[in-house]
C-alpha cells in the first residue's frame, strides 16, 4: 500500500517503522503528519500484528508519503533485529534512515532540523542523534530532556552511559547494509552496538534543537518488568562481543571497565556456567588475576547468601 508521490531528488530521509502494536501508533502517525518539513517517506513493516491498521493509515494518506507492507511471518518474537533489517529493505534509495518505534513520537521539527544540519556535518559522519526525553502511556513527559555534545566519540557515549533508544538516531543506509544489526535477545543492546558499529566507533553528530519522545510503558521492552532475565543475557552477550571482538577500539583501561561491567551483569544471574567460563577466560588472558580473585569472592558470597 502506498500513497502520495514525492520528488526523489529531495528525498534523502526514510522513516522506517517496524510495526507490531497499535495502541500508541496513532500518536506516532500524528507526529509525522505534524512535521514542518515533509521531505521524507515512511515505510511501515507490519510484523504479522493482530491489529489491523489500514483504516488508521487511511486518515494520513494525504498528510505524508508512506508505504505499508504486512509480513506474514512474525520475526520480532524470534529475532527483533531481523525485523528491523527486513523493514530497512523496504526503502527505495534514501541515504539516511530513522528506525522509529511504533509508540514513539517525533517533535514537529525533527525532519526540518535534519535538513538544516545535514550540510554542516563532516562527510565521515554516519550516525546522527537527537535530543530525547521519555514519556509515559499518556504522553506525559517523565524525564528531563537529554542533550548531547554536538560531536562525540561513540566510545565516549558508551562509557557516559547516557540513556539511548533506536528512535532518536539517524543512520546512513550504506552502514546499515554493510554492518547489519547484531541479534541480541529482545533487541536489547542491539541499538547501542549499532551506534558504535555504524559510526565505526568514531564520531556521532548531535542535533539538540529537535526532540524525540521515547515512550516507556508496560507494552514496551524497556518498561516490561517480566523480561529482565533476557535483558541480562543480552547485556552480557553485548559486553562480551565488545571485549572479545572489538578490543582494538578500546584501551586496556577501557577493556578492564567493560570486563568489570560484564562481571556485574553475570553476578546478577550467576546460573550460566558457559558465561562463567567466558568471564574467567577474559580475566586470565589479560593477566588480571587480582581482579579475578575479587570476582570469584563476589561469586561465592552471592552463592552462599542465597542458600
UniProtKB/TrEMBL annotation:
- Annotated Pfam families: Glycos_transf_2 (PF00535)
A GO molecular-function descriptor: hexosyltransferase activity
The domain of life is Bacteria
The Glycosyltransferase 2-like domain is annotated at 15-152
PANTHER family attached to this UniProt entry: GLYCOSYLTRANSFERASE, UDP-GLCNAC:BETAGAL BETA-1,3-N-ACETYLGLUCOSAMINYLTRANSFERASE-LIKE PROTEIN 1
Q: What name does UniProt use for this protein? A: Glycosyltransferase 2-like domain-containing protein
- What is the species listed in this Swiss-Prot or TrEMBL entry? Flavobacterium kingsejongi
What is the organism lineage in this UniProt record?
Bacteria, Pseudomonadati, Bacteroidota, Flavobacteriia, Flavobacteriales
Amino acid at each position: 500500500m502506498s500513497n502520495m508521490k514525492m520528488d526523489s531528488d529531495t528525498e534523502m530521509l526514510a522513516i522506517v517503522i517496524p510495526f507490531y502494536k497499535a495502541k500508541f501508533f496513532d500518536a506516532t502517525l500524528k507526529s509525522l503528519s505534524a512535521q514542518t518539513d515533509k521531505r521524507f517517506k515512511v515505510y511501515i513493516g507490519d510484523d504479522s500484528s493482530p491489529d489491523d491498521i489500514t483504516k488508521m493509515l487511511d486518515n494520513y494518506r494525504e498528510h505524508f508519503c508512506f508505504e505499508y507492507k504486512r509480513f506474514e511471518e512474525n520475526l520480532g518474537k524470534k529475532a527483533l533485529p531481523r525485523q528491523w533489517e527486513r523493514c530497512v529493505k523496504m526503502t527505495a534509495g534514501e541515504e539516511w534512515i530513522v528506525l522509529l518505534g511504533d509508540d514513539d513520537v517525533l517533535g514537529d521539527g525533527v525532519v526540518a532540523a535534519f535538513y538544516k544540519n545535514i550540510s554542516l556535518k563532516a562527510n565521515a559522519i554516519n550516525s546522527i542523534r537527537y535530543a530525547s526525553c521519555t514519556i509515559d502511556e499518556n504522553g506525559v513527559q517523565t524525564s528531563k530532556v537529554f542533550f548531547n555534545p554536538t560531536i562525540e566519540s561513540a566510545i565516549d557515549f558508551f562509557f557516559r552511559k547516557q540513556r539511548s533508544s533506536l528512535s532518536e538516531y539517524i543512520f546512513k543506509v550504506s552502514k546499515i547494509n554493510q554492518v547489519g544489526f547484531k541479534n541480541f535477545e529482545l533487541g536489547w543492546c542491539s541499538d547501542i552496538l549499532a551506534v558504535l558499529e555504524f559510526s565505526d566507533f568514531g564520531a556521532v553528530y548531535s542535533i539538540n534543537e529537535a526532540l524525540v519522545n521515547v515512550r516507556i510503558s508496560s507494552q514496551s521492552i524497556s518498561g516490561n518488568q517480566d523480561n529482565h532475565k533476557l535483558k541480562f543475557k543480552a547485556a552480557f552477550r553485548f559486553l562480551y562481543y565488545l571485549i572479545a571482538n572489538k578490543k582494538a577500539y578500546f584501551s586496556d583501561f577501557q577493556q578492564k571497565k567493560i570486563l568489570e561491567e560484564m562481571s556485574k551483569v553475570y553476578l546478577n544471574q550467576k546460573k550460566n556456567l558457559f558465561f562463567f567460563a567466558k568471564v574467567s577466560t577474559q580475566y586470565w588472558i589479560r593477566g588480571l588475576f587480582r581482579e579475578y580473585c575479587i570476582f570469584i569472592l563476589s561469586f561465592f558470597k552471592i552463592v552462599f547468601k542465597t542458600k
